[in-house]
Amino acid sequence: MKIDLEIAQKCRAWPFEEAKTIIKRLRALNRGEIKATDKGYVLFQTGYGASGLPHIGTFGEVARTTMVMHAFKALCPNIPTKLLSFADDMDGLRKVPTNVPNQDMLKEYLDQPLTAVPDPFGTHKSFGDHNNARMREFLDGFGFDYEFMSSTEAYKSGRFDKTLLAMLQNYDAIVNAVTPILGEERAKTYSPFMPISPTTGKVLQVPILETNPDAGTIIFKDEDGKKVEQEITGGKVKAQWRADWALRWYALDVDYEMAGEDLISAANIAGDIVQVLGGRKPAGFRYKLFLDEDNQKISKSKGNGLTMEEWLKYAPHESLSYYMFQRPTSGKKLYFDIIPKAVDEYITFINKMPEQTIEKKLENPAWYIHSGRIPNSQHTPVSFALLLNLASAANAHDKEKLWSFILRYKPDANPQNAPFLDRLVGYAIKYYEDFVLPTKQYRKPDERERTALEDLYTRLEKIDSNLSAEEYMTEVFSAGKANGYDKSELREWFQAIYQVLLGQDQGPRFGSFIELYGVDDTKKLIRDALNDKLTTS
User: Fold this and answer.
1) Domain for residue 40, yes or no?
2) What is the pLDDT of residue 299?
3) Does 293 score more than 80 pLDDT?
4) Close Cβ partners of 128 (under 8 Å, ≥ 6 residues apart)
5) What is the DSSP letter of 457?
6) pLDDT-derived band of residue 1, with 50, 70 and 90 as boundaries?
7) Same domain, 60 and 121
8) Got the DSSP string for 337-396?
9) pTM of structure
């Protein structure tokens, strides 16, 4: 979809604001011109620690970077772009992960580069290769358009050699850029280079005794105590992580990379190192980290919060992308209860998109999630919240049961021509079974509630079964008002409906529920509740 440049420039959505910082960087590097640097394209990079498997933070960083990249393309349609996923797989194995097999075997390879550690799963040449393959499967599964780069390959192929030699020439200045944030003892021994031991192959964290920039070598003590003079090129050293970040930025001429707020100081130091080398750091913002429902930082070791796998068990990945789009520089809670709301907000935006003006489309999260394309198959006439309540009322454990209600409500919809809705039906059942059903508890109505429900039953008996949701809602309101629920008490009336009929504290607009569930089934639900026949079985 072609977008008028003037309209794109006026867009204030955060991906466009970020894209404008890239343009500012390009102007600074090209004497005011907006064009790619000598490499011929604008490079967006995301980093990945290959010591573990992809997680929700990995998804968020790639998804958000793609959104910025898409906005940049709208502003600069004639400048090529590239998304690079960089795997830090030459880093040493510092500790054995607790979630992998063959732990004792891995202990024997501590401090070895990840691509030199045998794969504990037995499926790839190395542990690094295994995790890289998982990362690529992960990115491919979400349809990201990217190139993949291995740290080991980049170091050993000589791709980083020129920059490593420049770092050696500026050794003292780089050390001085890093040591202010280190403790006194660590500062005394810090070096931007970690040599690879010529005898054991380990990534050594040892002091560098001497540097020889003219020869391109460093001198250090190997594990056996012997002094070694070794080249820094050809994969014989690995840069310390802050210096490694700067190395990538400078060697690859990275134009944009975002990072979490916990890496602010590291990113600033990496930027200082790039400046020492004569370059300009990439554009990029620092996003806030996720919190659990108790406002605690999510930690993989603690197991608090919500994992990507858990989200994707109960909701489509588009809803996760939508959640990532929202206010990335503000802290957000990440726990199960937010899933239904995120799904329905995504549905609202995707349903609005076809009828919107270009200006409104550029404010719509769906435009960024789907890279400007309007996926007609995503349209759904039923909200996720309504599906959840339908599953609850029908006690549905299979898709066919939910579809029987949907087909009555929308006869022209079916799993084949509404695949997104079909996906939602499956997710709704899983969410219902794991989160709604275990807490579901019906209560008996009190005297006023019983009278109001009897009234609602009578009203439903007298009206047409093909009314709109709003018309049914009018009857629900009327039954409440006629039985003593004034305007200030209508909230209590609806809560009574949810607790008595659905066994939960919250629910959908009940008129929409009647429209989907059907008048006859709703009447039966009311009658069963009044006769104390509703159970969670």
Assistant:
1) yes
2) 56
3) no
4) 50, 87, 89, 90, 113, 114, 115, 116, 117, 150, 152
5) H
6) low
7) yes
8) GGHHHHHHHHHHHHHHGGGS-HHHHTT-HHHHHTTT---GGG--SS-HHHHHHHHHHHT-
9) 0.90
